[in-house]
Amino acid sequence: MSLDLSPVTLTGRRVKLVPLTAEHGPGLQQAIGTAPVFRYFGGLPTQDAAAIPEFLNVAAGMVAAKTAIPFCTLDAETGQPIGSTRFGNIDAAHKRVEIGWTFIVPDRQRSGANREAKYLMLRYAFETLGCLRVELKTHHLNQQSRTAIAALGGVEEGILRNHMIMSDGSLRHSVVFSILPDEWPAVKARLEGQLYPDGDIPA
């Protein structure tokens, strides 16, 4: 059985992940402003809000190719866009997905928003899609991301050297992490303890 690639909404206490559409563009641009949220992304023309049209075009192309399920990350209380993330590089035949293409606007970083988004996506990947592998990659210089992925429970597997050409012409080596189904229960328990210490876990 292959993976169900239908659009889906995932709701937590801090964030709500909704299918990303062009309609989210203005809100994301306003939220980003001049912040360099795309500093470690490859293939985008700028690091700030001006890159959103191309970001959306790339996401739409991946949806058309059935290799991605992109989300707009909303503040669960206000409904305002605060970032984006997606399931990408989907290999339905082998039940493998990557979680990535993620950014959170600066004023919501270290708020638990990104961690909850990862929790919701991992739970959906393993418990609904039945994935056999969830992969996460990051730029070798993005130490904050590397630390965060390891803290989630991602197992570092190695580095893809000269993996991507950045917009400034520099080369990105991508650090590869993964989480497997037998690792998910421990990862889930740790994340739920961090995110929902009162035990009120979103359904």
UniProtKB/TrEMBL annotation:
Positions of the N-acetyltransferase domain: 14-153
GO molecular function, one term: acyltransferase activity, transferring groups other than amino-acyl groups
SUPFAM superfamilies associated with the record: Acyl-CoA N-acyltransferases (Nat)
Pfam families: Acetyltransf_3
Superkingdom of origin organism: Bacteria
Protein name: N-acetyltransferase domain-containing protein
